[in-house]
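Anyone opening a protein record will find just a pair of labelled lines. With that in mind, the following record should read easily:
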Amino acid sequence: MTYVETHDGTRIFYKDWGSGPIIAFSHGWPLGADAWEGQMLFFAQHGFRVIAHDRRGHQRSDQAARGNDVDCWADDLEAVFADADVSDATLVAHSTGGGEIARYVGRHGTGRVARMVLASAIVPQLAAGPKNPTAPPPRRSMLWEPA
């Protein structure tokens, strides 16, 4: 099992299988790297290197009293990527993982990232305000809403 220690001493578990172009997976709440195991096995068997981590507080990663926010998750992901020497990766995220990889790119740039795939992801929304007066209004849910 592979772990990396973050700036605050939290140990983050990650899987790193195969070789070739990198696909890194980010899970939704309250899952872990195992949620991507089927996809990881498929891609590892077809010439890709696949990486997935357990976000802090999930499965094999340490529980932490602090740092349970999107900024810290993005920094934890950078610690994983630095430890695994990730470059030119495709990031794939579901649910909460979408917010994690969006914030990752916002905080750490695209130096390690070639592309991103957001699958039913929850990402930060740009809100209208003094610094962003032309933001679109919040989207209505595509699910049923009372009239």
Summary: The domain at 2-121 is CATH 3.40.50.1820 (Rossmann fold). The longest strand covers residues 113-121. Residues 141-147 have pLDDT under 50 and may be disordered.
